[in-house]
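User: quick one, fold this
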Amino acid sequence: MSTSAKGGWAASGGGGGASMEYVSTRGGTGTVDFEGALFSGYAPDQGLFMPQHIPLLDGDTLRRWSSLSYRELVKELCSLFITAELIPRSMLNDLIDRAFSRFRHKDVVHLSRLKDGLNVLELWHGVTYAFKDLSLSCTGQFLQYFLEKKQKHVTILVGTSGDTGSSAIESVRGQKNMDIFVLLPKGFCTQIQELQMTTVIEDNVHVFAAHGNSDEIDEPIKELFADVDFARKYNLMSLNSVNWSRIMVQIAHHFYAYFQCAPSLDTTPLPVVEIVVPTGGGGNITAGCIAQKMGLPIRLVAAVNSNDIIHRTVQHGDFSLSESVKATLASAMDIQAPPRVREETGKKVGKPRRNASSMAICSLPRAEQVSAGRERPQPWKSMEEPYNVERILWLLSGSDSHLIKTLMERFSASKSLTLPEDLHRKLSETLHSCSASDEDIVRAMQRCWEENHYLLCPHSAVAAHYHYSQPDGAPRCCLAPASAAKFQDALLRAGLVPQLPPEITALTAMKTRSTPLDRGQDWAQALRGWIEAMAQWREAQRHCLAASGQQGITGQGVTQT
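Assistant:
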């Protein structure tokens, strides 16, 4: 594997570079290896971790990879970013095979070739029918590998108003080294999305239904992460798309889409394929930018709904949040509103409790509440901001961490930023963009059904809208992040009939379990109580097993059997 002129590697398709390390986009921390980036989320300086060097693939490697399955592409790509010293290649292959073992399609993902050149890459054949299953299932396996190896335990906190919670739950359910606590805003998720979380009955899965909106559920999570002593004691972490592992796996989407849609790889230079990416928080489009940097000849289009911050950034260099978020049919892409301040309501401590259909998890008394510690950089930000744009700007700036730190601190303070002219020029050369209204989404869904008898989810329809607006027949692939079955209201709005798979229909008859969080209750204190209670329960289990000669799992102040 030889060093390239661009500072990356000319990869031969073999194992990862022995010196692959990660740096913060803001330059305020030292390098870490993949394990460090995996468990850190945000860097200590509030930046995002990125590879210090991007591997550069030559044409021969791309031609050789063109015959690989999606599963094999994930293995090859991950091996470039994870050293064999951390995870031996044979073990890496096994972990990825395990991650995809529950996917319904034999190829993991599937390309549907439809009329008028519409190619739809279905990324939703995982357990929850959403693209996040792909990256989170792998991330869950990577986490469990390191935790088992070091006999450690982590506590995962997730706030969700859509698919992240259910995908995160499925990625770690039943894992002995992880407890996951998920907060969902009651009434703000679809019934299917909520049931996909509340029907998972596992000792390590804890779902909380909060009587508030998606901004309000962020607040208790921020508070717990900001309590340094508490966060360290219980090894708190998050699984949103700030985590590099998720971006890394998503790079494979673009390689697979390219190889499936390129007319021929016998020419020099290789042909260009346009990849249209429904874009919210920016994880998938960031993965596409990295794929470009690796030498994949793709033209990227960021397709957004009426919440158009990324579109405005690409078109005009205007990276500014709007005063409010617009509720759209493509709800998972409703990104751009600044977090709203939660109204103080005379909060009081509420005792954590399960609902009537739940089983008691711990009969031990609650420990004294941990008081708030000193401030630290928070590894949690509202999903209302497209935070992965920071990674894209870092790539395009030539890894200028000083510039990125200055720009992102300015944005954080004012929620408004005009990109420097040179950086905006590079961004507009790298990305194209479009914005779709709800009417555009409905028309795309209707046309796709009329021409193909194929149902698009509203997010996939944003990408299809772009395709239908193009006069040329250039090779193009639209990424489809979710199954239409999850968005019945949008289908009905388009005058279409939902088609529910039996796995989703069965959810309504399954037992559910969740803990209500009422208004007026101190949600952060309630979460503290549950996290502490689970730690005590696992400590008691460990002692019981130790007395019988068995071993448990040890964490920093936490034990788990």
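User: anything notable?
Assistant: The first strand starts at residue 2 and ends at 3.
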